[in-house]
Amino acid sequence: MKVFNAKTTLIVLLVVLAGVLGGCAPAPVVPAWSSLLIAGDILYTGSQVGRVYALNATSSLEIWQYPPASEKAGVGALYAAPALLDDTFYIGSFDNHLYALDANTGVQRWKFPSSGRIIADAVIADGTLY
């Protein structure tokens, strides 16, 4: 697992690099504040419009997005770096919640309310999420 700690990133930069290195097709441009996380062949990122994306790191094809594309609104801007433990993806949001999503499907497992916007990065140590 790799986390790229650039707070203002465009997914297109990674896609361009992947395209040069791997010959992949271009993906949609998604403005992102959230750091990128790569685990295996999946790239995860959160966007300014409150959506989490899982992309195939080789082909740049979307695997899933949360909330699903059928829902109009996102969950609030995503600034904090995501974390991954086993098959659960964690990310905090400007909508005052920490989200736990199935890393393979994007289905919400739970969300935890906080007293304010979550801008701090999630950290996992010894199997515990902080």
Topology, please?
Elements: E1 2-4, E2 9-10, H1 11-22, E3 31-32, E4 36-39, E5 42-46, E6 52-56, E7 62-66, E8 83-85, E9 88-92, E10 97-102, E11 108-113, E12 124-125, E13 128-129
Antiparallel strand pairs: 1-4, 2-3, 4-5, 5-6, 6-7, 8-9, 9-10, 10-11, 12-13
Overview features:
Lipocalin, 1 helix, globular, mainly beta, four-stranded antiparallel beta sheet, 9% helix, 130 residues
Radius of gyration: 14 Å
Amount of helix: under 10%
- Percentage of residues in strands: 35-45%
Strands ordered across the widest β-sheet: 1-4-5-6-7
What is the number of helices?
A: 1
CATH architecture: Beta Barrel
Might you state the CATH topology name?
A: Lipocalin
Strand tally is: 13
Query: What coarse outline follows from CA principal-axis ratios?
Result: globular
Helix and strand run: EEHEEEEEEEEEEE
Query: Which stretches are low in confidence, meaning pLDDT under 50 for 5 or more residues running?
Result: 1-13, 19-25
Distance between the termini: 18 Å
Alpha-beta content class = mainly beta
Number of separate domains:
1
Could you report the average pLDDT, rounded to the nearest whole number?
79
Instruction: State the CATH class.
Output: Mainly Beta
Main sheet overview: 5 strands, antiparallel
